[in-house]
Amino acid sequence: MLNRVLYYYKKEKKLLTYFLVSSFIVTALDLYGPIIVQDLIDLAIPSKDLDKFFTYSLVLLILYVFRFVISLYSSSRGQLMGNKIKFFMREDLFEKILKQPDSFFKERQSGDLISRVTNDLENVSSLLYRGLEDCLFSVLSIVGALVLMLKFNTKLTVITMIPLPFAIYFTIYKNKKLKVGYVDIRKNMSRVTSSVHDTLKTIFFIKDNSLEKEKFKRFSSDNEKLLEVEKKNVFNLSSLMSGINFYNQITQLIVIFLGGYLHIKGEISLGVIVSFILLTNRFRIYILRLIGLADIFQRGLSGIQRFSEIMEISKENDGSNILSDEITSIKISNLSHSYGDKNVLKDLSLEIKKGEKVAFVGESGVGKTTIFSLLKSSLLAQEKTIFINGKCIRTIKRESFLKRVGIVDQNEHLMNESVLENLKIIDRETGTEKLEEAMRLSYLKDVVDSLENKENTRLGEGGVSLSSGQKQRIAIARLFLKSPDIVLLDEGTSALDNILERKIMDNITNYFKDKIIISIAHRLNTLKNFDKIVVLGQEGVLEVGNFNELLEKKGLFFKMYSDNDKV
User: Fold this and answer.
1) What is the pLDDT of residues 220-231, one digit of tens each?
2) How far is the C-alpha of 351 from the C-alpha of 477, rounded, in Å?
3) Same domain for 90 and 171?
């Protein structure tokens, strides 16, 4: 984890150097101030020498102004460094998340991932800037102040430092409790974030079914758990701050009492007492900054740990072969797949050539969607069970393969952007002519023309302003824009009415007549022109043939078609 932090510091070593040097100058100026004050009180005032008095006062004024300028520069460089490190970490983390397989997102809550990319990295940025400043220069200031105090009077310094070990022990003890507390806070905060995200994602379903009270009840439960954890940490943090303030008051009392006693005995001057008070105040300020660092450190460390958890996920196995030629064949050989102890596919064998249209049908749970997941590499197929152009799919680089695959499923996958942006994300180089053709073939043109700002109309979260059928037409338009070698349709026209579905399916089969089309459909009428229909059941492949052949067999497909027709 330390190496990862150092890596990002090295990326901004120039800003880091400016920040460290300027902060060191500020620390030195802070320590030099009490020395000038002592000379002012002990030399200028007793001698009633106005020249010395004004000289020392002017030096102090110049020192404070110079400190202000350097401090401003130091703070700006440090803040910029923290922001740039946060920028690089956020980009690296988001890129890593995007490269994860489907299973990664099924196992994790979206709210937790959002929290890692946003809140966690804010805390990390604060640690790497303010944490570094407070830790390094608070320690330097404390050591420097201690050296000056010893120079002024050893006896007063030693006695003043007596409470320090107790304060350090108290601080370490409380910090350990805070660390545990902040880990719990982060976990519960992720639950609250996920609860809000899930609610907003399904808000129309919730409102349509009057489930607001139910969702609020669940949110309130998560929120209460977060509050309980925060309450425990509030006591620990408050007791820590109060304890340190008590230490500083005791220290000041020692300086005033013992310093006054030594001054009366003639062992130290009044200027030394005043400088001692200034230095002990510095002690108080930097001790408090170190205490504040406990909060920053715990939050930032938790953020770094959660950042590292994602970044250290081992890279998914990917092939090395890059597909440079058109995909002309898919061969499935004895393909089986199971989820735990449940087998959903068993010994499926099939060969699909360029220009063929193949469909998988069957009841729910027989493996139709699993086949698609295996074909698009969302799930890893067993070795030597799926071949693309004669090469095992596991040896092919996934990115180069998916660039040649077009997928339309039951989910529309729309972004909160304009219609045009939702289309052109497939191909940034798409020209107006191809865009219009895609909208015509998908019957999207009339939808776009009816919108207030035409293709520049923003769709809202998940395309909230469109109907399900309109959303699906955007997904189909993307298919025409991509012009893939393999077309995968997983209920890709299920939201369309029968007439429009038939028209769009005709456009798909004609446009991609020299490509491979694989479909899952419950509306069996759409499969009349398919070359091969594979009927799946719990025991595997039950029937194979074209539409008319399967009807003539009067088997399961015939029954499914008859039931479908009655409906």
Assistant:
1) 888 888 888 888
2) 28
3) yes
**Greatest mean pLDDT among 176-185, 494-503, 529-538:** 529-538
| 55 lies in some domain | yes
The residue to which tokens 């090395």 are assigned: 320
Closest to 442 (Cα-Cα) out of 499, 507, 488: 507
Sign (positive or negative) of CA dihedral 547, 550, 551, 552? positive
Question: In terms of domains, do 136 and 55 share one?
Answer: yes
The two three-digit tokens of residue 23, written as one number: 């902060």
Handedness of CA 445, 451, 456, 458 (dihedral sign): negative
**For residue 406, what are the β-bridge partners?**
487
d(CA 307, CA 490): 35
On whether the CB atoms of residues 344 and 352 are closer than 8 A, the answer is no
Residue 318 lies in a domain: no
Cα atoms in the 13 Å half-sphere on the side-chain side of 528? 5
Q: Domain with 377 in it: what CATH number?
A: 3.40.50.300
Residues 86-113 as b or e (16 or more Cβ within 10 Å = b): beebbebbeeebeebeeeeeeebbebbb
How many structural domains are present in the chain?
2
pLDDT tens digits, 507-523: 999 999 999 999 988 78
User: What domain range includes position 69?
Assistant: 2-311
Question: Does one domain contain both 161 and 220?
Answer: yes
Answer whether residue 321 is part of any domain. no
| Whether the Cβ atoms of residue 268 and residue 259 lie closer than 8 Å to each other | yes
Q: Do 473 and 541 lie in a common domain? A: yes
The string of DSSP codes covering 503-529 is: HHHHHHHHHTTTSEEEEE-S-GGGGTT
Inter-CA distances, 283 with 304, 420, 502, Å? 30, 61, 80
The pLDDT tens digits for 5-34 are 788 888 888 998 898 898 889 888 888 888
323 lies in some domain: no
Same domain, 357 and 472: yes
Across the range 341-353, mean pLDDT stands at: 85
Q: Of 285, 311, 337, which closes a domain? A: 311
Q: Do 84 and 9 lie in a common domain?
A: yes
Per residue in 191-233, pLDDT (tens digit) is 887 788 777 777 766 766 677 788 888 888 888 888 888 887 8
Q: What average pLDDT does this structure show over 304-311?
A: 85
